[in-house]
Structures are given as C-alpha cells and as structure tokens.
C-alpha cells in the first residue's frame, strides 16, 4: 500500500523542466576531462553524470592542442601528446615551472575495498531513484533510471578498455622500458613540467593514444552509450516532475564530485603505470628549472634549437645561468625524485621569468 502523500507526488507539477537542455549543456567539458584522464575513483566511478554523450562520442580520446613535449635526452620534439595525459595533467594546480613528474612501472591497482565502495555508492543511488519511480508509479521514471544504469555500465566498459590498453602496452615491453630520459613539456597556458621516466613509457604511453584491445566490443558499447543517452533525454522529459527534480539533483551532485576528483586515485593509471608528482617551489624561475636537469652541451643545443633557451649570443643570460643556477645547484632533479619518489607538494599559480 503506497502512502497517499507519496502517491500524490506523481500529480505534483507547478512548473516544467527542460531536460534535454540540462543533459546537453551542463558538465560536458568537465566530464570530458574528468573521465578522459582515466583516473579511478573510490566514490564517483559508478555514479551517473551529466554530459555522458562526451563518452559515447569518443570526445574523451580526442587530442588537445597546445601541449608540446621535448625529449631532451633524445633530441625529439613532439606535439601529439596523448589525450589522457593532457587531461590528467590539467587536473593539478601546477606551478609555473617547478612541477616534476616521475614515471614508474609497478603493479598497483585500486584496492578491492575502494572498488567495492564505489560500486556500492553507484548501486545505492540507482536503487534509490528506481524505488522512488516505482513508489510514485512513474513508468517513464523507471525507464529513465534504467537508461541511466545502462549509461553508467557502458561508460565503465569504455574507460576500462582504455585503461587496459595502457596496461597491455606496458606489459608488451616485457619489463624492459628502456633507460630514463629527461623530458620537458609546455602547456597551453605557458606553464612547464619536467618529466622523468623510462624512454619507452614516454613513447608508448605519453605520445601514443590509448586504443581499445577489442575495438568491436568497444564500438558496441559506444552505441549502447548513445542509445542510453537518447533514452535518458526522452524519458527524463516525460517523467513526473518530482522524479525529474530528484534525478537532476543527483546528476548535478555526482557531476560536481566527479569534476572535483573526489576519491580519485591520481597516482596510478590502470594497474601498471604510476606517476609521482612533486609540485616544487612555486617561486622557482625557468632557468633554475633547467639547471636541475644537468643538461649536457648537446642537450642545451637542442633546447636552443627549440627556442626553449636563448641563443648562445645572449651572453648575459648564459653567464647568469651558469653562475647563478648551475653553480648553486647541489643536486639534480633526477636524484631528488629518486631519493623521495612519492613526494607531492602543493604549489600556487606563480609566474616567473626566464
């Protein structure tokens, strides 16, 4: 027996909602970044979100312009930085030039307890919405919740495929990722990041897009995601106002939590690739950041060729670089990271000149 007050909620409708506008306008950009960075979360992994069509449309694996990677050790400049890495690095409050990332290969995955928590949270939310749709006898509301569940499942399959692609790539190296290389990367906003790690990890993970191991299954789940998005847009608009409001509130909350990376395990991508981040001193100038790399004359020439360092004719800059930075640099950034590989410091957005 349904209580009359709850049953009457299906007849309550003092105004209308533009469901299609909510689903297509809000959260698309943020979800493109939050889902596309392939980070696992112990809270938001199985929650329904706004802007889910970015996953169905494969926007999460489309490259972002403006990122340039300089492999100083090998003398290579590349502009085709992996989509997942550009989205991953954009989630950190990077310093202007002092942030250092150390790449490691290690068997590490989200603990079972955290995975269970994320699944439990997702099931609880979907179950709550489903029960409210049943209690209010809202058939469209039931279909709405079902489409949201399909959307979540297909999203998880797609993201898992991309994570597994990185695991497979690292596994194919057969525990021989090559020697460590020094890499400098510039971002669209002018900031720069130092990256240290094995050569083949840089090439195959940071400069090669993650591709699903089973492309046919991946495509099928993308179509399922599109179907779920379309059904969600229609059924949400046809649902009772009470269930519409309930759904929108949960979607907004889940989207906010996902966008702010609540419960995110950002130190690992997949089960093999680990990234240790040291934010560094926000007041560190660009020249001091260069000096930490302990570059050879050949490597310095590469930086000059790429216009990352001034021409040799700029005697004033080079004298200051050698006297003020190189002579006072006690240890290289490589040794700093090796001595404390898991260090992570907070940094502010501070700009310093070369």
UniProtKB/TrEMBL annotation:
TM spans (from-to):
112-135, 245-265
Tell me the organism's taxonomic lineage.
Eukaryota, Fungi, Dikarya, Ascomycota, Pezizomycotina
Q: What organism is the protein native to?
A: Penicillium nalgiovense
Has keyword Membrane?
yes
This chain belongs to which protein, by name? Answer: Uncharacterized protein
Record keywords: Membrane, Transmembrane, Transmembrane helix
